[in-house]
Write a structure and sequence with these properties.
The complex is a heterodimer of chains A (about 90) and B (about 525).
Chain A lengths: L10 H23 L5 H21 L7 H25 L3
Chain B lengths: L15 H4 L4 H29 L10 H36 L8 H23 L15 H4 L4 H28 L12 H33 L12 H35 L6 H14 L15 H29 L8 H24 L1 H7 L3 H31 L5 H28 L13 H31 L41
Helix pairs in contact in B: 2-3, 2-4, 2-15, 3-6, 3-7, 3-8, 3-13, 4-6, 6-7, 7-8, 7-9, 8-10, 8-11, 8-13, 9-10, 10-11, 11-13, 11-14, 13-14, 14-15
Bound molecules: protoporphyrin IX containing FE.
The site of protoporphyrin IX containing FE (HEM) has 26 residues of chain B, from α2, α3, α13 and α15.
């Protein structure tokens, strides 16, 4: 397995990712103030997904994993996405 | 020859050799014993409910007691019997043998799963005698009632939470096992279809159960701290609870039925002496069911006040999930065609399974169609339907597997005549009991009441008599299995002349399953 080969990731990368996360948090707050109605939910979920992806990709080292592993991760992500979309067929059309 | 795992030296003596074991076979038997004990309790509760319902009027249960009893019956049957039923007991015992592994991938997590399961069960039982008394919400714990009732919901729900955790761990464990521990030559297309079904089930356990965990935690938080997730007065949404509950619980019905489908798929070729018809289609349909099963939860909520758009979409998707189930049924029938049939008990139970499951599945379509669903919703039609799929389907599949693998697990043969007699009683009793419920539901008798209008007397009497016949069948069946455990004839290693890998080692198997590492060169159903 790959985990033993150490990837020396530059501290700089981590700091950049961290700053990006902070900015995205700021964006979430901004989005909440913009009174977008139904779309504020979309904005929130989109921003949260980007943040989660950054964490997974860099902090949790997904970037350095094998292809199969990345592919397998897609199964739950796609499933949960479809589930969320389906729920909105109720909430938006009620 | 190596000694069987029963006689091998364990790390701790006596009972500790079992409850601290890491051998997948022992863990499987622990699960088997515990879930069958819960089953016995659940059946007893069911029988007393039927007794109360023998005629209209109140006999010995008050309304409140009846509410607690059907809740308990439902919770036990779902979370403590049928969900762990096949995957954790037979799956644990048989699946590693079928792929030629020496154990599961994480043996310690395996026993941890059982511990969590038992602790969850114990906590759920404790909730009956403490706090505000036994929960009375039905097994679905719907808000707002579950938030307002004074009964001991939080503790019961926490018990279910632990059981869910146990189920998730088992799923993760089996997935890893099937991916990493297959014997040399055991390609994906040489795996038995039972293992395929366990594989599909494990994905559901891993991905769906956390949703249940979150839902139950939110419920506990709302009850104890008054946070308004579900309370409209605080900006919450009660229908959200139903969404979240069924996002888990609908896939969970496939946790119940898929392993049963896998079991009968393994049995049919052995007792017809021919290869299974449509191997790839059956394997793929398991995965398809697992996937589409995530997308249909809304059909439990047609009358909840959900939007019309959602109702139409969920109704459509529900029809789609019937397709892979249909694929399986036709493949089983095609596999029986022109086979050299040996009518042993496992096949008999399998045929009963196919018959009962088909009725359950087809009546499912009645409820999947919006217009008819509105008519039968909340009636005994629904109770009839889910007993046909869960008991007639998953339950009978489990019984079929118990008989089929009994020689593997114990090294003994059960008594064939008794097994058939039991199946006969079960089948007659089952149909009397639950078919009456379809009639009652169609006529409008609502579920979850301790009493009913006198015009429903007739079919209710038939159902109650049926429940006793069914109970006779269960008694004969378990008497036979337990008696044969001590007094049965020696089975030999492979009494059914099966071709799959679990039968190529001694019965019962040694501790690490195979004396020499098996190398697989052919498919699981090739008899020649
Ligand atoms: C001898 C066997 C059984 C009998 C006599 C029986 C009887 C009943 C009856 C009469 C009800 C309806 C209660 C009502 O709505 O008023 C019921 C509900 C239920 N049964 Fe069974 N049952 C049996 C076995 C099973 C099995 C094997 C399972 C599952 C594998 C099961 C799962 C359930 C569930 C989930 C409910 C719904 C509880 C609720 O409404 O919250 N039962 N049963």
């Amino acid at each position: 397995m790959e985990e033993n080969t150490s990837h020396h990731v530059a501290t700089r990368t981590f700091v950049f990712v961290w700053i990006a996360l902070l900015c995205l948090t700021g964006l979430t707050i901004k989005a909440a103030q913009m009174q977008m109605g139904e779309w504020s939910m979309v904005a929130n979920i989109a921003i949260a997904s980007v943040k989660a992806s950054l964490v997974l990709w860099f902090f949790m080292h997904l970037k350095y994993e094998k292809r199969l592993f990345k592919l397998l991760l897609f199964v739950p992500i796609i499933t949960i996405s479809i589930i969320i979309v389906l729920t909105f067929f109720d909430i938006w059309y009620r | 020859m190596e000694a069987s795992f029963y006689h091998a030296k364990t790390r701790y003596p006596g009972i500790f050799g079992w409850i601290f074991t890491t051998d997948h076979k022992r863990v499987g038997l622990l699960y088997l014993f515990s879930s069958l004990s819960f089953f016995a309790v659940g059946v007893s509760l069911g029988l007393t409910m039927r007794l109360e319902l023998i005629r209209s009027g109140m006999h010995f249960y008050s309304a409140q007691t009846y509410n607690a009893i059907f809740t308990l019956h439902g919770v036990i049957m779902i979370f403590l019997f049928i969900i762990p039923g096949i995957p954790s007991s037979l799956g644990n015992f048989i699946m590693p043998l079928q792929i030629g592994a020496r154990d599961v991938a994480f043996p310690k997590i395996n026993i941890l799963s059982w511990w969590l399961f038992i602790m969850g069960g114990a906590i759920a039982v404790t909730s009956l005698f403490t706090g505000g008394g036994p929960p009375d919400t039905g097994w679905t714990f719907y808000v707002p009632y579950s938030i307002r009732t004074g009964t001991n919901i939080s503790l019961a729900v926490f018990g279910v939470f632990l059981i869910g955790l146990s189920s998730t761990l088992t799923g993760m464990n089996f997935l890893t096992t099937i991916h990493r521990l297959r014997a040399p030559g055991m390609t994906w297309k040489r795996m038995t279809l039972f293992t395929w079904s366990i594989y599909a089930t494990s994905w559901i356990q891993l991905l769906a159960t956390p949703v249940l965990a979150i839902t139950l935690l939110l419920l506990i938080i709302e009850r104890n701290f008054g946070v308004g997730f579900f309370d409209p007065a605080k900006g919450g949404d009660p229908i959200l609870f139903e969404h979240m509950f069924w996002i888990y619980s609908h896939p969970a019905v496939y946790i119940m039925i898929l392993p049963a489908m896998g079991t009968v798929t393994d049995i049919i070729p052995v007792f017809t002496r021919r290869n299974i018809f449509g191997y790839s289609f059956i394997a793929a349909s398991s995965l398809a069911i697992a996937f589409v099963g995530y997308l249909v939860w809304g059909h439990h909520m047609f009358t909840s006040g959900m939007s019309d758009t959602a109702r139409i979409i969920f109704s459509l998707l529900t029809f789609i999930v019937a397709v892979p189930s249909g694929v399986k049924v036709f493949n089983w029938i095609a596999s029986l065609y022109k086979g050299s049939i040996r009518m042993n008990a496992p096949l008999l139970y399998t045929l009963a399974f196919i018959f009962l499951f088909s009725i359950g599945g087809l009546t499912g379509l009645v409820q999947g169609a919006l217009a008819t669903a509105v008519h039968v919703h909340g009636t005994y039609f629904v109770v009839g339907h889910f007993h046909y799929v869960m008991f007639g389907g998953a339950g009978f599949g489990f019984f079929a597997g118990l008989h089929y693998w009994f020689p593997k697990i114990t090294g003994k043969l059960y008594e064939e005549h008794l097994a058939k007699l039991a199946c006969f009683f079960l089948f007659i009793g089952f149909n009397m009991l639950y078919f009456s419920m379809f009639v009652l539901g169609w006529e409008g008798m609502p579920r979850r009441y301790y009493d009913y209008l006198p015009k429903f007397n007739g079919p209710n009497l038939v159902a109650t008599i049926g429940s006793w016949i069914l109970a006779m069948g269960l008694i004969i069946m378990f008497y036979n299995l337990v008696h044969s455990l001590f007094a049965g004839n020696e089975a030999g290693d492979n009494p059914w002349e099966a071709a799959s890998l679990e039968w190529q080692t001694t019965s019962p198997p040694p501790v690490e399953n195979f004396a020499v590492q098996p190398v697989v060169t052919k498919g699981p159903y090739e008899f020649r």
